[in-house]
Write a structure and sequence with these properties.
The complex is a heterodimer of chains A (119) and B (107). By secondary structure, chain A is an all-beta fold. Chain A has no helices and eleven strands. The chains are: A mainly beta (119), B mainly beta (107). At the A-B interface, strand 5 of A face strand 4, strand 5 and strand 10 of B.
Chain lengths: 119, 107
C-alpha cells in the first residue's frame, strides 16, 4: 500500500530557505518509471505543480520557480527532498508530495503540510 | 506551457442532478488528461486518468470523455459526498499544469 507524508517547518521567515521532506512507503524510487512530485496550493486557490524527480534521477521543474527549487532523492531512506530558496509570503500554502508512474497522473498523495511565510 | 481552462468555476446543484464540468487545453494533449476531486482540508484524489479511465474504487457515476483540447467530467447522479472541487491536469508535457478548479456546491 502506497503512502507518502510531508514533513518540515510550518513557519518560515521571508528570504529563508524552505526544506521539505517527503517520506514514502509501498514503492521504490529505484523502480523503472517511478517518480515523486511536489505540488502546492495557496489558501483558497488552485493546485500548482512545482517539481518532479524520477527513478533515474531525471528532474523536472516549474519554469516559473526553477531558479529557486532543488529536488533530490535518498533512495535508501525512501525520501524526496524539496528546497525552495528566498521564501516570500506569496509562497504560503499547502505543499503536497505525490507518487507518479511514467506519464500517468499523480495517483497517491500525501496529506500535505501547510507552510506559512511570515516575519 | 499548456494552459488548462475549466468551466464553470462553480456550479450549484442538488442531490440526484447530472453535473458536467469542462476542461479545455490551450493546445492538443491527446488523452493525457486527469481529473481529481478535492474536499476541504484534504489532498486531491485521482478520479480519472488518460481522459476517460476510471481509477480503481471510483464510483461508476463518474465518467469522462474527450481528446485533443476539449474534455468533460460528468457526474450522472450527484451524491452528498460529491460536493467538492474538481481539477483537471495535463501530463502531455512539462510543465505539468492544472486547471483552475470547479467547485460543486449544494443548491
Amino acid at each position: 500500500q502506497i503512502s507518502l507524508k510531508e514533513s518540515g517547518p510550518t513557519l518560515v521567515k521571508p528570504t529563508q530557505t524552505l526544506t521539505l521532506t517527503c517520506t514514502f512507503s509501498g514503492f521504490s524510487l529505484s523502480a523503472s518509471g517511478v517518480g515523486v512530485g511536489w505540488i502546492r496550493q495557496p489558501p483558497g486557490k488552485a493546485l500548482e505543480w512545482l517539481a518532479l524527480i524520477y527513478w533515474d534521477d531525471d528532474r523536472r521543474y516549474s519554469p516559473f520557480l526553477k531558479s529557486r527549487l532543488t529536488i533530490t532523492k535518498d533512495t535508501s531512506r525512501n525520501q524526496v527532498i524539496l528546497t525552495m530558496t528566498n521564501m516570500d509570503p506569496v509562497d504560503t500554502g499547502t505543499y503536497y508530495c505525490a507518487h507518479i508512474l511514467g506519464a500517468s497522473p499523480f495517483d497517491h498523495w500525501g496529506q500535505g503540510i501547510l507552510v506559512t511565510v511570515s516575519s | 506551457d499548456i494552459q488548462m481552462t475549466q468551466s464553470p468555476s462553480s456550479v450549484s446543484a442538488s442531490v440526484g442532478d447530472r453535473v458536467t464540468i469542462t476542461c479545455r487545453a490551450s493546445q492538443g494533449i491527446s488523452n493525457w488528461l486527469a481529473w481529481y476531486q478535492q474536499k476541504p482540508g484534504r489532498a486531491p484524489k485521482l478520479l480519472i486518468y488518460f481522459a476517460s479511465s476510471l481509477q480503481t474504487g471510483v464510483p461508476s457515476r463518474f465518467s469522462a470523455s474527450g481528446s485533443g483540447t476539449d474534455f468533460t467530467l460528468t457526474i450522472s447522479s450527484l451524491q452528498p459526498e460529491d460536493f467538492a472541487t474538481y481539477y483537471c491536469q495535463q501530463s502531455k508535457s512539462f510543465p505539468l499544469t492544472f486547471g483552475g478548479g470547479t467547485k460543486v456546491e449544494i443548491k
